[in-house]
Amino acid sequence: MSRENVQLIQRAIEAWNRADIDGWLDQATPDFIWIPAGPAAVERSVYRGRDEVREAMASGRETWEEFRFEETEIRDLGESVVWLGRVHLRGRASQVELDQEFAIHAVVRDGRLARTEAFLSRDEALEAAGLLE
Fold first, then answer.
1. CA-to-CA distance for 19 and 34, rounded, in angstroms?
2. How far apart are the two ends of the chain, measured CA to CA in Å?
3. Distances (CA, A) of 84 to 26, 36, 52
4. Backbone dihedral region of 130: left (phi > 0), alpha (psi from -120 to 50 degrees) or beta?
5. pTM for this entry
6. Which one of 31, 64, 101, 128 is most buried, counting C-beta atoms within 10 A?
């Protein structure tokens, strides 16, 4: 297992949990592609480049008072990583809370995240990474 890839996704998740948008984007390539799932996919389904991602993340933080990930497992696949865990959310205005399974398939290029795609189930992420048929 590539310790660097595991640490990369862990740094990105830690920055997200701190609501540190720039810290999260520091882990990404300039042409980064973010494909959110569920509550984060409000305005569109794909964000390209740091500026689009930054705006989308800031907008999401306005909607969600709490938006935090909890890791259960990481699988390093060489040029990509599958992060498995849960997402905990609480609406800023509504105070509605959500807690559900969550997964991310992240493609790594030159020591940075080049593309992340989020999934609302572990099996969907494993399938996207080619680990399930």
1. 16
2. 22
3. 21, 15, 25
4. left
5. 0.88
6. 64
